[in-house]
């Protein structure tokens, strides 16, 4: 007999995954424009603001996933996903640390300093990629562990 997640909890997780996806894609877009414009200070400040907003969203979202227990419940429903679940949970502090590092690196020094701005671009791209992969893996886990239809998530 399969456990069931409450529909409202599942809805909240889905909604948050969509919001995080949008925030990450907007950041990728803002980063591309910043590079094209040659790192004006206003664009760097915009990146910092977006990163700070993303950090706030993720802090709440990760706490909800950890306390609300969808990952725990996935394991009790389907113990074969224990390793995958534990790996996903360990990624939370890692992703938050990377986002915070990117906030700290979003300074005016990036302007006209390609020895800083080039690695910044690469790091931010990699961080956003890791975040999007994380959320994609969670959606796949939810689907497998709770036998959800592919269009449910
Ligand atoms: Fe997560
Ligand atoms: Fe998530």
Instruction: Name the bound molecules.
Output: fe (ii) ion
Helix content: over 70%
Structural class: mainly alpha
Mean pLDDT figure: 90
Largest sheet: none
Number of domains: 1
- Strand % is under 5%
Low-confidence stretches: none
The end-to-end span amounts to 21 Å
Structure summary, number of beta strands: 0
Q: How many helices in DSSP terms?
A: 5
Radius of gyration: 17 Å
Written as H for each helix and E for each strand, in order along the chain, the element string is HHHHH
Shape category? elongated
What does this structure look like?
The protein has five helices and no strands. The chain is mainly α and 153 residues long. It has one domain (7-145). The mean pLDDT is 90. Bound molecules: fe (ii) ion (2 copies).
Task: Describe the SSE topology.
Layout: H1 7-37, H2 41-68, H3 70-77, H4 82-105, H5 114-145
The structure holds fe (ii) ion (FE2) (2 copies).
Task: Give a summary of the structure in a few sentences.
This protein has one domain (7-145). Helix content is 80%, strand content 0%.
Brief descriptors of the model:
mainly alpha; binds fe (ii) ion; 153 residues; elongated
